[in-house]
Specification:
Strand order of the largest sheet: 1-8-3-6-9
Mean pLDDT: 81
Length: 106
């Protein structure tokens, strides 16, 4: 994705405590969450995913999401605005995307 009209709202690093919960909420901007450390679940637009170190999600504006951390960890968040249309789909009908880290056996 190359954005020609991009406005960074903010970026931050956050240390998460064991059993910490982020209740269901949404933002007026896009959000990218990179799970650097820790394990838990994230619910994006009603779909629950398990996250682990080195996974990330991209959440479009106005999409409800929440996180439950089973162990302490570290996340990086980036929130931004753009007037460009960003189509984010997995399969045929999904409003957010979650990327898992896969390891290849050598």
């Amino acid at each position: 994705i190359c954005l020609t009209d991009f406005k960074l709202m903010y970026a931050f690093e956050y240390t998460i405590g064991k059993n910490e919960v982020f209740q269901t909420h949404y933002h007026y901007s896009y959000e990218i969450v990179y799970y650097k450390q820790g394990n838990g679940t994230t619910k994006i637009d009603g779909i629950t995913y398990t996250f682990m170190p080195n996974t990330f999600s991209i959440i479009p504006p106005y999409i409800e999401h929440s996180d439950i951390y089973k162990e302490s960890g570290q996340v990086y968040c980036l929130r931004f605005f753009t007037s460009n249309k960003i189509n984010i789909y997995v399969g045929t009908d999904y409003s957010g995307i979650f990327f898992e880290h896969y390891q290849q056996d050598n």
